[in-house]
Model the fold of this input.
Amino acid sequence: MLDQTVAITPPGKSVPARYAAFSGIWAGRLDGTFEGKLAVLTVSPGGQVTVSYAWGDMADNKPGIADGAGRIVGNTLKLGRLPNGADITFTRQPDGTLAGTYTLAGQTYRGQFAKQ
Done:
C-alpha cells in the first residue's frame, strides 16, 4: 500500500474548490473486499491531476502501486489507464466520499472511498 513518503502538494489558490476537493489520500474497498488507496498528489487549475493508486489482492492481480495522471471533468476524476490495464474513475458524492469504479479484464468493481 502507499507508504508514508507520499507527498501531497496542496492545491494553489487558482485551483477551483470543486477540483481542490479531490486533493489528498482516499481509502476504500471495492466490492467490500478489495482494498484500495488513491493519493491525489497535485491538482492543476484546469483539473489535471497526478496520482498514485495502490491496491491489495484483486482476483488474479497481485498487490501493487502505480503512478499516473488523470483529469477531473465535472465531479468525476478519470485516471489514465494503469500499467496493469485497469481503468479507474472516482466520482464525488454529496456526502464528500468518492464512488470508485475499477475495471480490469472485463470485470468491474465498485466501492466508496473516504478521505484519510
